[in-house]
Amino acid sequence: MANEPIDMIMPVLREMQSQFAMMQERFVQVERKLDKVEEAQQNVRKALLADTMMSRLIAGDFEKRIATLEINVGELLKGA
After folding, report:
1. Does residue 18 have a pLDDT over 70?
2. Is the pLDDT of residue 1 over 60?
C-alpha cells in the first residue's frame, strides 16, 4: 500500500515546497543584484549629466570671452 498515489502526494508536495523556497531565495538574490546595477547606472547618468553641464559652462564662458574680444577688437579697429 505504500506505493499508492495518495501516499506519494505529501513527499512530492514537501519537495516542491523546498524547491519553491530555494527559488524564492534565488529571486531575492537576483533582485539585490539588479538593484545594485540600477544604482550604478543611475550614478553613471548623474556623472554624465554633471560632465555635460560642466562642459556647457566652460564652453559658454569661453564663447562669452571670445565675443567680448571680438567687440573690443572691432572697437579698436574703428578707432584706428
Report:
1. yes
2. no
As given in the structure block, the three cell numbers for residue 14 are: 514537501
| Residue 46 identity | K
CA dihedral 21, 22, 23, 28 (to 10 degrees): 90
For residues 4 and 77, what is the distance between their CA atoms, to the nearest angstrom? 108
CA distance 8 to 14: 10
Residues 6+ apart with CB under 8 A from 1: 7
User: Is pLDDT of 3 > 80?
Assistant: no
Cell 540600477 sits on residue: 38
Residue from 58, 36, 56, 37 nearest 48 by CA: 56
Which residues are within 8 A (CB) of 4 and not within 5 positions of it... i.e. 6 or more apart? none
* Residue in the block written with cell 559658454: 60
